Amino acid sequence: MKKTILAAAIVAAAPAVAQTENTQKDLLPSLETIVVVSSRQPEAMRQVATSVSVLDDTQIKARGFTALADVLRTMPSVSVTNTGGMGKPTSIRVRGESGYRTMVRVDGVDVTDPTGTQASAQLQHIMSADVGKVELLRGPQGLMYGADAGGVLNIDTLTSADETQVTLSAEGGSFDSQRYNASVGGGSEVVDYFVGASYAETEGFNSVIEDEKAPPELLQNQDDDGYENTTLHGRVGWNVTDALRLEAVARDTEATNEFDHCSWPYVNDCVGDFEQTNTRVSARYQTERFSNELAYSNTDVARQNLAAGAISYDTEGELEKLEWLGSAKLSEAHTIAYGLEQREDTVLEMSRDQWGAYAEYQGHYGEGLYVTAGMRHDDSDDFGDYDTYRVSGAYVLDVASGSVKFKSSYGTGFRAPSLFEIDYNRQQDNPDLAPLTPEESEGWDAGVEYYAHSGLHLELVYFDQSIEREIDWDGGYVQSAGESTSEGVEVIADFPVADWLVVNANYTYTDAKTAEDAVRARQPENMANLGFTFIPVSALQASVNLRTAEGTVDRVGEPIGSYQVLDASIRYALSPALTFYVRGENLTDEDYVEVPNYRTAGASGYAGVEVTF
Hints:
Blueprint: H1 2-18, E1 34-35, E2 43-44, E3 52-56, H2 57-63, H3 68-72, E4 78-82, E5 90-94, E6 102-106, E7 109-110, E8 131-138, E9 151-157, E10 165-173, E11 177-187, E12 191-205, E13 225-239, E14 244-259, E15 270-286, E16 290-307, E17 310-329, E18 334-347, E19 350-365, E20 369-380, E21 384-399, E22 402-415, H4 419-427, E23 439-452, E24 457-468, E25 471-473, E26 477-479, E27 483-498, E28 501-513, E29 526-537, E30 540-550, E31 552-553, E32 559-560, E33 563-575, E34 578-585, E35 604-612
Parallel strand pairs: 6-9
Antiparallel strand pairs: 1-2, 3-8, 4-5, 6-7, 8-9, 10-11, 10-35, 11-12, 12-13, 13-14, 14-15, 15-16, 16-17, 17-18, 18-19, 19-20, 20-21, 21-22, 22-23, 23-24, 24-27, 25-26, 27-28, 28-29, 29-30, 30-33, 31-32, 33-34, 34-35
């Protein structure tokens, strides 16, 4: 009987050994990796002088997290704060800048929620399912986007396979969590498509840490605060000719979140309903020398909060963009990229129009010198004209053991006050609340990278950036008289220890100060990730990641304790069609806080299965 079981196990495992789930190469950066986030057109990393981080679908799956924000925690210079578990308000800080300073795009659509206080992306509602690639441009060098000081987060969903492929997955685990995903994609030389549907829910945990001296009404209803998310996504492309491609993207997210402390007087029976629909249609005509794309995108958001069953907050908004993106290849070494954008933000009865135009020269000199110089002009019907700039340079020197890349970039940006900020001040009878004006940011960085033939990658970057007239809250929205600053160092190392072991590590030191020279709230001074990926056979992958943060303060300057969180996952491909995985989060059950008065999850475990055919 034992021999029969053993023989069956060997037969079952044999296809897994023969097939390739992941390889060492998938986990290591390369100079030839193609990115689009820097200049809105495909280019190899060897040409890119800005600071860009990349995660592909292999790395995203290895981490295994349900929420994409948890995946982003492992990237350099990225800190994430969450107020009580999956689906709760989540903010991403890049190089010390607040989350609303980083533009987030999904398949070319700006997913900014115009109804938000500072008009940022609702990152907590973006799940990791069907995400194929994440590119993060760090710093105020997002010339082509009109981006602010944080940078640009570009998210691409999975691309279609040449043949029809169906993927199904299911997961369950702690906090009565469940996740299901189904997708189908395929295509030919003429038509390609991808459709995905995902559902995630959790009972969660009581998100708020109640003060024992709080009023009795706040100490009641100490229940779990759950969350539910349904996301549908589709993309179809039609290659009308060799030069002309038409494409359409549609994405819809509906989420329900339970939380505490809403309305006045406070109650803990709170429910938030969120729906966001994103659409984009585009036509691209591309020849050997010219590329031009005309695109229209729309982000529509509706949010409603219920306090003890009664509506306490209700709003809706829309962000529309009409964009013309182009490039002209003057020669093999010289290219001009250009674009024109018309944007309209609408929240209930309020609206704002803004036009933008940019042009950038991109040159390649000699064997390894790459330079850019560009300018953008924006015209807002509320605030008039603003000009921003970017210059960058990279030099790649090939040596016997690999390549060394020197890089530097300088860029400026601006952020117009959100419609909410303007409207709030307008409604207050307070002469101290002066009319708001746009914030202006600038920053530069310089670094060196080493790519060895062995796979070793080392990177060292220094950054220094500032924001003039930063808008903050003080009984209303007010602007500082000076400059807030953020400077620091990023150290990144990726290397193969052996054929079966890869190490990915990063450390970021950030000195972020307000205009009053106080430490900025919720930004760790020191952050680090140390990850190990084990691949004993091609079908088996185990990943372990330790992240740490220290030197954080709250809004009144009180220290927030440092912490170390250990996560791990194991994936095993029983066959090319069937993969099992398990994942553990906060394995040491670290008791820590990211936002004062809000809990984080303790030790938890999850298991799932994926079927592909």
